[in-house]
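Retro notes, item 3 of 5
We never archived the inputs for the adenosine-3',5'-cyclic-monophosphate complex last cycle. Fixing that now. Sequence and ligand:
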Amino acid sequence: AVERTLSIIKPDAVAKNVIGEILTRFEKAGLSVVAAKMVQLSEREAGGFYAEHQARPFFKDLVSFMTSGPVVVQVLEGEGAIAKNRELMGATNPKDAAPGTIRADFAVSIDENAVHGSDSEASAAREIAYFFAATEVCARIR
Ligand code: CMP
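Structure as it came back at the time:
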């Protein structure tokens, strides 16, 4: 089925100047950008986005990293977009990420791991709505 998923290019990847290279990987894999913006997240925005991790020991570091510089937030659309994006990203910890994945190629640690992607249909719906009004998500031109 055609799905939408929320993708974030994190501060480490933005600082490395690889926004274009990462978006190209999505496009070459058949995913289309249907909404996008560059933003500097506040602590409140980053904390709210990662609310499910609030009790985890890494939460404070996660919020501090995600607010350390601008991020690029986008909605990707395509066949099986949620799983496809997770395949392209590779494992959360770049040390475990398969060769050729975004995290293997651009990330240095589990904290600074280049990209975020929704992990399920339910989180995709919540995460897209967290960053974009329905009117900001465009229909893909086919
Ligand atoms: P992300 O997919 O954005 O979701 C939560 C983030 O927390 C994750 O990527 C990692 O960058 C970060 N993180 C740090 N430590 C851990 C951990 N032990 N398990 C999962 N995520 C972690």
